[in-house]
Amino acid sequence: MFLPLDRKPDWKNPPLITLLLVLINVLFFYIWQHSDEERQTEAFENYVYSGLFEIEAKEYHKFRNLKTRLSERDYRQFTPRAQDVFQDMYQDADFQRKLDANEVITPDNKSYNEWRQKRDKFSWLWDRVVINKYGLNPSDPTLTTLFTHMFLHGDSWHLFGNMVFLFLMGFVVEIILGRLVYLAGYIVAGLISGLTYVLLFHDQNGVGIGASGAIAGVMGMYLVLFGLRKIRFFYFLFVYFDYVKAPAIVILPFYILTQLFIEFAQDTNINVTAHLGGLLGGIVIGLVAKRFHKTINTDYIDENVNLEQYQQEYEEAQRLLASMQIDEAREKFERLLKKYPADTNIKQQLFVVSKYNPASEPYHKYAHELLRLSGSDKATVKIIHDTFIDYAAKAKPKPRWTPDLLISIAVKFAACGYLDDAEKLVNYLIKAKRDYPRNAEGLSALVKYFNGVDKNKMAQYQKLLLELYPGSAEASHVR
């Protein structure tokens, strides 16, 4: 089995529609379908032990002119022979339709009243079972059951397997297409899946249930959107499992072969027709979306391809730098920065390259870009601190400080434990530019972060804040 495990959900922007669909399916099964098994058993026992099965089975033999007959023991004990007859009779849409229309056992039949009473009781019990009433019967479809059947499941394993596949592919397609288009595609694929089942099996009585047709549609959309792009698959064969990268489209022949094997080599009640119908519907929806939907997230589709290309170019630039091909390394990194202007790693490498000429404009430029990084987390502030130490020591003819830059750095340093450097910067600004109003912000940061570390210094800077900037908001806060 192949499972696409190429992406991780972004929980800062969660796949709300996929999670909602999973939740609805789970709630439908564990709440709405909660008593189905007991109700189904009650209805079936009534059908057999009330004598209704015996009456209708005999009529079925006449209706189809069957020569085989069941014994009284078959009826009483519901033997395998009786089960086979029941299966044939139940799936025979023509017989069931005429039976319900009183055309098999007619009102002028002497046993009609007895049969009708038993039949009405059984029908009432049968319709209490959610899957019987809201599952999709190909011989008697309705708009309601075309929709509801895709949210019903036969058992917990059926539900679990479907929800795993829905989540693994659904959250990816949701990010690419957007929530509303993805939801519409899911519903339409489920409807196409149901209609395919109805068109090909309209002469059979029964119920089709499960989200797998709609999920096959999501798979079809996934295949169209990723096409020949390589993605990461998890696969397992008996006890062996591993990961492999392959074009997304390989899912298609593998899935079709699996479905054909299920259909022709296994005796199961898996609705292969609905799966293939949903898959085809999803492929069509994906093609239409690619053609007409203007907001497809192509960056997300190409994310891994771009990442591989980025890593190759980045590593090549690092090799050039390591071999002291400075100009070539700078050109590589600058081209990368144009593609990824917010990438801090590239800016750090360009800062390293420019260190060979600390009087150059690039050295000052990339130093300032790193010093002005917006984050306040420890990793970001460490980059700022390392850059500050290097720039302060090496810049020629001297560092190009501004009061705003220094006070912003000082506040971040204080918050992340670089208190000595924060203290030096604040004291420098007080001496060099005492009337600068943001000095109060720096003093307030020292008061805050020396608290619990050095009470004397906390009191010292608190006093200084109140003396030098008594009208500031920070002073008011201290008071």
From the structure above, extract its key features.
Serine Threonine Protein Phosphatase 5, Tetratricopeptide repeat, elongated, 4 domains, three-stranded antiparallel beta sheet, 68% helix, 479 residues, mainly alpha, single chain, 25 helices
Topology:
Blueprint: E1 2-4, H1 16-32, H2 36-49, H3 52-64, H4 72-77, H5 80-91, H6 93-100, H7 112-127, H8 130-134, H9 143-148, H10 156-177, H11 179-200, H12 212-226, E2 230-237, E3 240-247, H13 251-265, H14 272-292, H15 298-301, H16 303-322, H17 326-339, H18 344-354, H19 361-371, H20 378-394, H21 403-415, H22 419-432, H23 439-450, H24 455-468, H25 473-478
Antiparallel strand pairs: 1-2, 2-3
Helix pairs in contact: 1-10, 2-7, 10-11, 10-12, 11-12, 11-14, 12-14, 16-17, 17-18, 18-19, 19-20, 21-22, 21-23, 22-23, 23-24
Relative helix content: 55-70%
The structural class is mainly alpha
How many distinct domains?
4
- In DSSP terms (H or I, runs of 4 or more residues), the helix count works out at 25
**How many strands?**
3
Structural description of this entry:
The protein is mainly alpha-helical and 479 residues long. It contains 25 helices and 3 strands. The chain has helices at 16-32, 36-49, 52-64, 72-77, 80-91, 93-100, 112-127, 130-134, 143-148, 156-177, 179-200, 212-226, 251-265, 272-292, 298-301, 303-322, 326-339, 344-354, 361-371, 378-394, 403-415, 419-432, 439-450, 455-468, 473-478; strands at 2-4, 230-237, 240-247. Strands 1-2-3 form a 3-stranded antiparallel beta sheet. Helix 11 packs across helix 12 (212-226), helix 11 (179-200) packs antiparallel against helix 14 (272-292) and helix 16 (303-322) runs antiparallel to helix 17 (326-339). 31% of the residues are buried.
